[in-house]
């Protein structure tokens, strides 16, 4: 069989495969059948390989190691994604704005910012979100639950991302650097805010006087100029 030949086609979506076994596994994505279950937690999977990878989460085994920084992973695909952080390669690009991503899932999340679709709604306050993960994090604001705690200082957080950002305050690591001036930051959000100082973009505007600012903190400080009571001349008469 030639390398490019793919004689096995899916009758549902017409996707083609070079191996019959791969086609059989693909068909399970249409039927939602998950015949492989974990003996430890009963979580089902559609592919045996995915089950094997899942089992490593129970054993804490991480057999896939990065040759650059020696960071270890339990999943080979996670190692591949990690390697892109070293090569700076971003193979997934948005067809609308050409923004590039190293992870396909991040591209899919980004595409929702163009469609403005928010299909995940909070049952408590009806606030809607474009991503299920964001909704889950939002629900914790109602319960005040903080399941993610720092192993160094025991400070707790409602979001895993906030915990990761907090850990950098202990390690002093600054993995997010500006491509224009090389200034480094510990948080991606801080880098995004910093980039606005280069583009001169001012996306935070005052609802009272329409004055615009590049940083949310500057807007908050400005709002105080409206709320703070100014002394009247008659107060001194």
UniProtKB/TrEMBL annotation:
GO terms for cellular component: chromatin; PcG protein complex; transcription regulator complex. It is found in: Nucleus. Its main location: nucleus. The keyword ATP-binding does not apply. InterPro entries: Znf_C2H2_sf, Znf_C2H2_type. PANTHER family: TRANSCRIPTIONAL REPRESSOR PROTEIN YY, ZINC FINGER PROTEIN 143. This is Zinc finger protein 569. It comes from Araneus ventricosus (Orbweaver spider).
